[in-house]
């Protein structure tokens, strides 16, 4: 991995391995999902949901920065456009032990646009550069940027190249690029993940033109073989919804992409390892579905998968003994798999 460029009074930490990462996804990649995902993959780089600078500086800091050490390697994604506020949050992220701080320049929702957060910042490369510079001066944690290949009205390759060049000059050496433009008016965030066409070739060109930078490809990746092929053109791949809905995809990542010969866990082993975590959460006053809602796809494609999803998404809300339901479900899935 490329070390970040040095600057006065700035020491750098080793870069986390971004060969494969799970994208930050609002309401999905919370600490419970990340704990679950880490049981399946030892090496995937995990990202938090986007957290705004305001939430960290003026809200429940322990909630927004808290995580289980088992989730590492873990990156914090920040949403904001005020360099001083981002610098303060980057320093707090370093103190909390995050492996990386990432700036969101890709989210297209109206709500974040109104606060000058996300993809709209692609129209302001100098401001993004100021933000990156301030963050890097405030911490030794690697500072990265996640962005689109463009936004409507600013979607030429020349403008994308200018954006990357300007932000790189501020010290950023790792860019995660969603290979779609963002349409900032008239499309929902969901539509912005589906309607603008994927253009992997644009990201490939970016890597060719900036060989000294680490370029991570994001957008539409669901198949491990395709990811392997893409790694001939870019330095890493970032997977979003597929890693959430089909979490067992992560089980092959360590061996296929990281050449780790460590034995893979089984789905039942992962399920069993989640039990003490769930028990601890319940003892602290939490609800079981806060965790199990992230686990619905664990048995996707196997006998009993529909039953597993139904029990954890519906029956769980009607029982007064959620752990007993969990234990019963474990035994049922074990029996189904043994018969298969």
UniProtKB/TrEMBL annotation:
GO terms for molecular function: flavin adenine dinucleotide binding; FMN binding; tRNA binding; tRNA-dihydrouridine20 synthase activity; tRNA-dihydrouridine20a synthase activity. It holds the Pfam family Dus. It catalyses: 5,6-dihydrouridine(20a) in tRNA + NAD(+) = uridine(20a) in tRNA + NADH + H(+); 5,6-dihydrouridine(20) in tRNA + NAD(+) = uridine(20) in tRNA + NADH + H(+); 5,6-dihydrouridine(20a) in tRNA + NADP(+) = uridine(20a) in tRNA + NADPH + H(+); 5,6-dihydrouridine(20) in tRNA + NADP(+) = uridine(20) in tRNA + NADPH + H(+). Keywords: Flavoprotein, FMN, NADP, Nucleotide-binding, Oxidoreductase, RNA-binding, tRNA processing, tRNA-binding. Its EC number is 1.3.1.91. Gene3D superfamilies: 1.20.120.1460, Aldolase class I (3.20.20.70). FMN binds at residues 24-26, 77, 146, 178, 218-220, 240-241. Residues 22-327 form the DUS-like FMN-binding domain. Signal peptide: none annotated. Catalyzes the synthesis of 5,6-dihydrouridine (D), a modified base found in the D-loop of most tRNAs, via the reduction of the C5-C6 double bond in target uridines. Specifically modifies U20 and U20a in tRNAs. This is tRNA-dihydrouridine(20/20a) synthase. It comes from Halopseudomonas pachastrellae. The gene is dusA.
């Amino acid at each position: 991995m490329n070390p970040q460029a040095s600057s006065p009074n700035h020491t750098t930490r080793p870069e986390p391995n971004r060969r494969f990462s799970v994208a930050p996804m609002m309401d999905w990649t919370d600490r419970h999902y990340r704990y679950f995902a880490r049981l399946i993959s030892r090496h995937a780089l995990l990202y938090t949901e986007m957290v705004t600078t305001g939430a960290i500086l003026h809200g429940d800091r322990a909630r927004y920065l808290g995580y289980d050490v088992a989730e590492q390697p873990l990156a914090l994604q920040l949403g904001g456009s005020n360099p001083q506020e981002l610098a303060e949050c980057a320093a707090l992220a370093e103190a909390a032990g995050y492996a990386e701080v990432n700036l969101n320049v890709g989210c297209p929702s109206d709500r974040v646009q109104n606060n000058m957060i996300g993809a709209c910042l692609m129209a302001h490369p100098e401001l993004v550069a100021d933000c990156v510079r301030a963050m890097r001066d405030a911490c030794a944690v690697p500072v990265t940027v996640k962005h689109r290949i463009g936004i409507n009205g600013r979607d030429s390759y020349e403008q994308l190249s200018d954006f990357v060049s300007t932000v790189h000059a501020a010290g950023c050496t790792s860019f995660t690029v969603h290979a779609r433009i963002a349409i900032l008016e008239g499309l929902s965030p969901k539509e912005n993940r589906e309607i603008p066409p994927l253009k992997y070739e644009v990201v490939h060109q970016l890597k060719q033109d900036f060989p000294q930078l680490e370029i991570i490809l994001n957008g539409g990746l669901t198949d491990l073989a395709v990811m392997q092929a893409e790694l001939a053109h870019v330095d890493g791949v970032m997977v979003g919804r597929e890693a959430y809905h089909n979490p067992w995809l992560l089980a092959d990542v360590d061996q296929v992409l990281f050449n780790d010969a460590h034995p893979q866990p089984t789905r039942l082993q992962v399920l069993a390892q989640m039990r003490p975590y769930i028990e601890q959460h319940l003892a602290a006053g939490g609800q079981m579905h806060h965790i199990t809602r992230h686990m619905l796809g664990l048995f996707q494609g196997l006998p009993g998968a529909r039953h597993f999803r139904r029990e954890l998404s519906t029956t769980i809300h009607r029982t007064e003994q959620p752990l007993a339901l969990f234990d019963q479900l474990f035994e049922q899935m074990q029996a189904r798999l043994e018969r298969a």
